[in-house]
Amino acid sequence: MADVIELNEIPTLSLLYKLNRIPIASDQASSYEPNVAYNDKISIIKQDITSLAIDAIVNAANESLLGGGGVDGAIHRAAGPDLVEECRTLDGCEAGDAKITDGYELPSKKVIHAVGPRWYALSAPDAEAKLKSCYRRGLELAVENDLKSIAFPAISTGVFSYPNVKACNDALTEVREFLDEGKGDGLQRIIFCNFLQKDQDIYYKHVSKHFPPVAEVEETDEVTKTSTDETEIAAKLPDPPTTEPKHPDEPSSKKQKTEAAEDDFVVVDKDDAKGTPKGEL
């Protein structure tokens, strides 16, 4: 397992804007009102999700909930055999839904197992509805269980072939709507945790459409001190992982649809580097 990352080591969207880590392009005009409280809740990181010491991580699970490849297999391996034993009692899960278990040997307290849609098996509207439901059910379970922090992987963008750019925008849309409905007031942090650089780049490009930056205010001594402290936290962030153990039953090569631009699909080889994981389910 990678070195444990504490919640206070994960920068918020507000800090990422302040440090100019996220570009604001002229073509990214937002229909949403800027909200500093939301930006203080949202984080985007490139990290191994099994390393996060938070209240809950979301597993990109399959319908059996008994483990698989990619992030699913990584979470089960890191949590230990007790996780699959509890999952056996849950009688599976339908696509678009989620179920919660303990985290066992993981640094996170809970695991929320969300079953994403298979893009190639559904119509686009049905797949979108089920993916959005995964994010909503994850947030609902966090709130119902009085959890304060939750991290999502890029659900369905691996072997389930959901287009990466669309998956990002659908996830951000659903989280924004959940917060606008006032249902996430008790949540302190919602983290989009990407393993692949391409997903991190996509989130950085599109997040400002859904969570636009708040206009700068005149700095006081206290604001300056807070800014300095946050910058120091960001500077201490560890490097993201570059490898992850593969599931033993996982094929050696997969093809996946992804998006090089807004609307165009290209086919890329998922094993573009030795030891690189298959991505999210």
UniProtKB/TrEMBL annotation:
Protein name as annotated: Macro domain-containing protein
InterPro entries membership: Macro_dom, Macro_dom-like
Biased composition (Basic and acidic residues): 244-260, 267-281
Domain of life: Eukaryota
PANTHER family: GANGLIOSIDE INDUCED DIFFERENTIATION ASSOCIATED PROTEIN 2-RELATED, MACRO DOMAIN-CONTAINING PROTEIN
Region described as Disordered: 217-281
Any Pfam family the entry gives: Macro
SMART domains per UniProt: A1pp
Domain Macro per the UniProt entry, residue ranges: 29-211
SUPFAM superfamilies linked to this entry: Macro domain-like (SSF52949)
Organism field: Didymosphaeria variabile
High-level lineage: Eukaryota, Fungi, Dikarya, Ascomycota, Pezizomycotina
